Amino acid sequence: MQFVVLTLFPELVQAVTQHGIVxxxxxxxxxxxxxxxxxxYTLDVHRxxxxxxxxxxxxxxxxxxxxxxxIRDVRQQYQGRLVYLSPQxxxxxxxxxxxxxxxxxxxxxxxxxxxxxxxxxxxxxxEECSIGDYVLSGGELGAMVLIxxxxxxxxxxxxxxxxxxxxxxxxxxxxxPHYTRPELVEGLEVPAVLKxxxxxxxARWRKKQMLGATWLKRPDLLAKKDLxxxxxxxxxxFRQEYKVSSEVIS
Length: 250
Ligand code: 9D3
What we know:
Blueprint (H helix, E strand, L loop, with lengths): L1 E5 L3 H5 L5 H8 L4 E5 L13 E2 L9 E2 L1 H14 L3 E11 L2 H7 L4 E6 L7 H7 L2 E4 L9 H12 L11 H4 L17 E2 L2 E2 L9 H19 L1 H5 L5 H18 L4
Parallel strand pairs: 1-2, 1-6, 5-6, 5-7
Antiparallel strand pairs: 3-4, 8-9
Helix pairs in contact: 8-10
């Protein structure tokens, strides 16, 4: 997968390539990240990339001319869907990430200031993508989120560690609690089942915790899921234990 990123802050985007899974994926040549800076496509001495909005008001708008030259330079070297990161975009979901992961190449356009001249959207943008309903200062963190989330899904990038993610049970559920050594932390113990060596019991406990955590913290996710009779029974068990543990006896 190749990511071609159009950004006024290439060093910010490059940060995602320098650590962890994305870095490993680049070393394995499963991923390539190339940045192009619209400022390098300005023609004036001040290298101006923004201008005041028609109609007045606060903030600045990214100028169309350097953006168009940058996009066209990129497009004649690479073909791929051009995704504009913007608060007006379609919200990113894991399903969207999976669909992006099928592409051989993505061109990611990052806006700054109040955004880009609308005519760039009309002329060049294939889709508009938001990473959530909160206000960022520009599209770069969005592009980095896309690069990270897509890279994890590419064949050969993750080892066996995430195979649970592939199993259909885990889909759309929150994760179970995790523990590592030591056995005792400030008087708090590890659940006994995790030290039992009983793999069936451990798997059952983890499923129950996943259902329980989702029920407690993200009922919206649970509502979207079709639980089997066995899953419903596990969740009922969790709810029963939760109810008992939260009852105050006075
Ligand atoms: C405070 C400025 N807002 C005026 C009503 C509009 C606005 C303009 C530009 C808000 C944010 C931005 C910059 N944001 C992005 O480029 C961005 C973004 C985001 O802010 N939230 C979620 N996903 C994304 S992807 C790109």
